[in-house]
Amino acid sequence: MPFLARPCSVRARCTLIAALFTVSVLVVLGATLDLAIRYRIQSGAFRLAEQVASQWSPVARDGMVPRPIPSNPPVDLIQVVDVHHRVVHASRGASATVPLSRRRPPPYARFQPYRECPPNDRCVLLKAIRLTPAPDASVVYAGIPEPDLLATHELEYAIAAGIAVVTGIAAWTAWMLVGRALRPVEAIRARISQVTVSDLSLRVPAPRGNDEIGRLATTANQTLTQLEGAVEQLRQFASTTSHELRTPIAGLRTQLEEALLYPDDVDAEAALRNALTTAGRLDAIVNDLLLLARLRAADPLPPEKIDLGELVAAEAGAHSAAVPINVHAPAGLEIRGSRMQLIRVLDNLLANALRHAESAVEVSVEPADDGVAVTVTDDGPGIPPAHRERVFERFVRLDDGRRRDPGGSGLGLAISRDIAHTHHGTLTIEDSPRGARFVLWLPLIRGGPAT
Predict the structure, then answer these.
(1) Cβ proximity of 334 and 327 under 8 Å
(2) More confident: 212 or 423
């Protein structure tokens, strides 16, 4: 239904909740206050009437009641009524013929309060006292007209007006306080709406303090910083990828155009072989790019338990090269991860070491720092310290690497480091007396061999 529609803003909802809560509490308090006031006034009237009735009760038993009975303001209605409901004595304010009440207290409860409401007249609060337990005993009635607060609804109207005023004040206060509290949120929303993919340099205003909104602004700014960095990396990656792909594509196009334009001067078979080699490099680059994208975007595969020593020994034994591979890989060092991805890392490291080694490649597996370290060392020219981090960047290939492997994609080490990171490990280059020393560190399964 329309009137039950949920308010569209947090400010309106909070104000509505505050108003409803205030009304609920005040209605309960108002009803309690109304009942308490009514009870207090009524009990006070009955007490005054009882005092007057008790004063004339012994006088009536002795038959010494004067005519008329003197009134005791504010109790102006006093009567002595016999068993036949006839008025025997009355005060000036009470009727001399019509009894104040036709109800008589029983013999076992001689004091009784009554509320009598005659037609077209104000109700009267009475206290009736039976003179004796005898069946024909007379009754003394002392009464007071019902006070205005009991006879009308003025008290309820006053309480309702107070509830309305206090509820209005509470709702206005809630509206102002919530609006002030949400003002930074609106500023954050307005600033975020200005952020675009082409301009991620904007930051949201962070209010002073360490409250929830301040932490929200800080987190939003951190997210925008990370997003700006990711977009910048994506742009650089797209630019670098375009450059790396343009060179082999241009070479492939040139070779094919020469074979078509100068069929008599160009060896067709050699041109096709060169084109096939260039296409193979393009295929390697594209496959590595796809693998790199899957590593960064796809959900990880369920990990399996892997004996890293056995895996390293198997992969080292599967490589046939001109230089020997010396392996020291004890069994029993178990990790969790993707077997296929770790095989890719080991293949990249072994292929890189074999490509640069002069006489031998050393491979070792040993515990290190609550994990296991796989070290691949060659005795080649090594990598200068200034370039040890650059080689892990995408498409970065040093001059010696280009000379030894012209068809490489330049993504092998970048992929290997990403795989290491997805396994909560690291891939670094450490100092070595000779050649390059790659160290792959992976965490052991909890409860595995100690270091």
Answers:
(1) no
(2) 423
Beta bridge partners of 305: 336
| Residue at token pair 């206050």 | 33
Cis omega (within 30 of 0) for bond into 74:
yes
Residue 390 is classified by DSSP as: G
Q: If residue 86 lies in a helix (H) or strand (E), which one and from where to where?
A: none
Question: pLDDT of 50-100, one tens digit each?
Answer: 999 999 999 998 888 898 999 888 899 999 999 999 999 999 999 999 999
A 10 A CB-CB count for 280 gives 12
Q: With CA atoms as reference, report the closest residue to 393 among 195, 269, 248, 244.
A: 244
What's the DSSP call for residue 280?
H
| DSSP reduced 3-state for 47 | helix
Q: Are 173 and 111 in contact (CB under 8 A)?
A: no
pTM of the prediction? 0.52
Read out DSSP for 173-203?
Answer: HHHHHHHHHHHHHHHHHHHHHT-BTTB----
Cα distance between residue 368 and residue 31, in whole Å: 75
Q: Which of 4-8, 212-216, 250-254, 344-348 has the lowest mean pLDDT?
A: 4-8
CB environment 254-263: b (16+ within 10 A), e (fewer): ebbeebeeee
What's the CA gap between 177 and 409, in Å, rounded?
61
Contact 65/80 with Cβ under 8 angstroms?
Answer: yes
Spatial separation of the C-alpha atoms in residues 362 and 349, rounded to whole Å:
11
Paired tokens of 192: 């975020």
Phi/psi at 160 (5° precision): -65, -40
Structure tokens at 166: 């206090």
Could you tell me which of 410, 446, 414 has the C-alpha nearest to residue 427? Answer: 414
The b/e string for 417-426 (b: 16+ C-beta within 10 A; e otherwise) is bbbbeebebe
Side chain identity at residue 62, one-letter code = D
Do 367 and 328 meet the contact criterion of CB atoms below 8 Å apart?
no
For residues 55 and 142, give the distance between their C-alpha atoms in angstroms, rounded to a whole number: 10
Residue 436 · residue 429 · CB < 8 Å: yes
Residue 191, both tokens: 């600033």
* pLDDT at position 82: 93
- Cα–Cα dist 60/81, whole Å: 10
Burial class (CB in 10 A: 0-12, 13-18, 19+), 187: middle
Token couple for 68: 């008329």
- Distances from the Cα of 314 to the Cα of 51, 55, 311, 317, 448, angstroms: 111, 117, 5, 5, 21
Confidence check: pLDDT of 265 > 80: no
